[in-house]
Design goal:
This is Sigma-70-like protein. It comes from Sphaerimonospora thailandensis. This protein has helices at 41-53, 71-107, 112-119, 123-139, 149-155, 160-174, 179-199, and strands at residues 5-14, 17-23, 31-35, 62-68. It is of the alpha+beta class. Strands 3-2-1-4 form a four-stranded mixed beta sheet. It folds into two domains: 5-69, 2-Layer Sandwich (TTHA1013/TTHA0281-like); 73-199. The chain has seven helices and four strands.
């Protein structure tokens, strides 16, 4: 395949199974199959496409977008994913802003208990954040001493990559993406933000 194709997997419950309907480039019609768990849907669909196109499954360089056939469920899923995404962004911003402010205040000579009092957190939590900040600074000694209150204020803003991801996602939703594309983009964005949160301190 010279171009990366996209296949759609429409799923619905059928007793104890998930009924799949796979459609996309090269297929003469939508083909049915089934899986026990949704996590198996893409692999099953990939095998089906390879069989229908009479090629080895390793040759299927394509994306598979999963959609829920029940429109009511799909709409509720989109709303839930958007809510979780917003919560993840707020949590990320709060963590970054708190880390930066704790570091900035400590550099100005504030003791742990006073920092904790000002930010409404325990002095133990303050100590933990400062230890994490020191580890990050040790990993990039050239940046030592560059933190300031201005840096702390800047951290209140969304990081560029996160903002770009969110804007892209919301723009696609506003342009009327099909429901399955919206759900996949939201799930993917949530996953990437989760990964960024896990790497936030180690990348400092």
């Amino acid at each position: 395949m010279s171009k990366r194709d996209t296949y759609t997997i429409s799923v619905s419950r059928s007793d104890d199974w998930w009924a799949l309907t796979v459609s996309g480039p090269g297929l003469k019609r939508a083909y049915p199959t089934q899986v026990k768990r949704l996590e198996q849907a893409e692999e099953m669909a990939r095998d089906l496409v390879a069989t229908m196109l009479d090629v080895d499954v390793s040759e299927i360089d394509a994306d598979f977008d999963l959609s829920v056939a029940d429109d009511e469920v799909a709409t509720e899923l989109e709303a839930t994913l958007l809510t979780r995404l917003a919560a993840t962004l707020v949590k990320q911003q709060a963590a970054e802003a708190t880390q930066a402010m704790v570091t900035a205040l400590a550099r100005r000579g504030y003791v742990h208990r006073d920092i904790g009092y000002l930010l409404g957190m325990s002095h133990q939590a303050v100590g933990k954040l400062l230890n994490e900040a020191e580890k990050g600074t040790a990993a990039s000694a050239g940046d030592a001493g560059t933190h300031s209150l201005e840096d702390a204020n800047d951290r209140l803003l969304m990081t560029r990559d996160t903002e770009a991801l969110l804007k892209s996602c919301l723009l696609n939703l506003a342009e009327g993406d099909p429901m399955h594309l919206s759900l996949n983009r939201l799930r993917a964005l949530g996953g990437r933000l989760g990964y960024r949160n896990r790497r936030r301190l180690t990348d400092a």
